From TrEMBL, chains A, B:
GO cellular component: cytosol
Name of protein: ADP compounds hydrolase NudE
Organism phylogeny: Bacteria, Pseudomonadati, Pseudomonadota, Gammaproteobacteria, Chromatiales
Domain of life according to the entry: Bacteria
Presence of keyword Cytoplasm: no
GO molecular function, one term: ADP-sugar diphosphatase activity
Named cofactor requirement(s): Mg(2+)
Limits of the Nudix hydrolase domain: 41-172
Database matches in InterPro entries: NUDIX_hydrolase-like_dom_sf, NUDIX_hydrolase_CS, NUDIX_hydrolase_dom
Organism: Sediminicurvatus halobius
Name of a matching Pfam family: NUDIX
Keywords per UniProt: Hydrolase
Length: 189, 189
């Protein structure tokens, strides 16, 4: 089934802060029904990058940092915003250096994911990083970030932790495991 | 490493619309550094539920609907907001009936996930639904939702689709596959 997209009748700003821009959108669906939605306008650059840094011993470099949204320390993958027009692989290496102190000689895009397509245009590029080496870059974090290496083959143990909750990080760990398994398959063909 | 949480110095509303409430939070970290963050205040009830409806033949009932945030049709799992104080399993069955026309005799919680803990308190309950049977409930959707059954054992094919992008749906499909495999293991013990 392929449907024509709803027609956009009007878009207006209903709230705005330093970081957030809320729009009200009036739409007319193909069946004639008209609806108003609120959404977060695309802003703050072109999106975000989430990095899966794989050490040679099969451990993933997770980070544990304070999250203001949930008001607690959260375990997850290094991430950051892309600057305007920036290549996601460039963002990935910069954020990796700032948050873990490691650079990567080998980075590759795994997939682009959305966060909440119903009300946000936000896109996150998932990047696999390998061949890591010490190469710290000062970041703008309010306190030192804790790096927590975790064995990729203990994904179940990771999912059992109460502080590993972010959907993007959960999805990215599975995607990385699949990608690395595929690589292994190819090596043995 | 266990750190004391940053101290909250002040919280104030900086923008508000019908659905969104943006707060500025001033924090002092344990090392004395003070920082201001913006976040989306918890609101609109206690969270959301995402359902993985598994048919007896191993197909998952996906839905395809228009998403105002990305302005395109997106493939994903049925979901909806919990009403105040509502059990997530109750929300799951209601949303499943409204969006797919099926009820479920067996529902179980898989995991709670966060969306963007850095700036949002939003939590999503992932629920596995089995023993499905026809039991439609009228919803408030602007147009009929397309139901797309997809074989769980073709997760790679699903991930290759350009319209299956939501991180929560990607993570939930993997979690459901693991949970069902564990069930299978137990059956054979």
């Amino acid at each position: 089934m392929s449907r024509p997209k709803p027609e956009t009748l009007a878009v207006r700003t209903v709230a705005r802060s330093r970081l957030f821009h809320v729009q009200a959108v009036s739409l007319r669906f193909a069946n004639g029904v008209e609806v108003d939605f609120e959404r977060l306008a695309p802003g703050g650059g072109s999106g975000a990058v989430l990095v899966v840094p794989v050490r040679a011993d099969g451990f993933i470099l997770l980070i544990r940092e304070y999250a203001a949204g949930t008001d607690r320390y959260e375990l997850g993958l290094p991430k950051g915003r892309m600057e305007d027009g920036e290549d996601p692989l460039v963002t990935a290496v910069r954020e990796l250096r700032e948050e873990t102190g490691f650079g990567a000689r080998r980075v590759e895009p795994l997939r682009v994911m959305s966060l909440a397509p119903g009300y946000s245009a936000h896109q996150t590029h998932i990047v696999l990083a390998r061949d890591l080496y010490p190469d710290p870059l000062p970041g703008d974090e309010p306190e030192e970030i804790e790096v927590v290496p975790w064995p990729l083959d203990d994904l179940h143990g990771l999912l059992a932790r109460e502080d590993f909750t972010e959907a993007r990080s959960v999805a990215a760990m599975y995607l990385a495991r699949d990608a690395l398994a595929d690589d292994g398959d190819r090596l043995h063909e």
